[in-house]
Predict the structure.
Amino acid sequence: MTPPLSWRSIGAGLLLALGLSVMTSTAVWATDPINTTFFGNKAIKGYDPVAYFTDRAPVKGNKQITLEWQGANWYFASTEHRDLFAAEPEQYAPRYGGYCAYAAAFNKIAGIDPDEWTIVDGKLYLNYSARVQKKWLKDRDHFIVEADRLWPGLLEK
């Protein structure tokens, strides 16, 4: 006769299954063309992409002022910003789908901290953290060339 399962063994099995599910699912998420949050499908964590250009600062978007573009929900601080983005999304959307610009230069995908940003030649670049951005800024132009070269292939992984 098989001994009954304990709550501890059931819980351990569920945790293992959940862990494996998350590990295998992140590989699928990483190929999305736009970096989004798990809940709400928010591009750049709900920050207004236009504000980086107009306000020269990261500004949290308003959940009442959104636009769907490339399968992601983009949030804006004002209807004016939403309208600017709608007219020219490529002008305002961050490079590399809103993934970390430094990671993209190494053929990797990484999330971002919306507070770690740079505009270079009219393009928005985001980085994973302040520490990563410091590295990225040391050889920014080289990293941009590499990331531009590698980015299309990252989506195919």
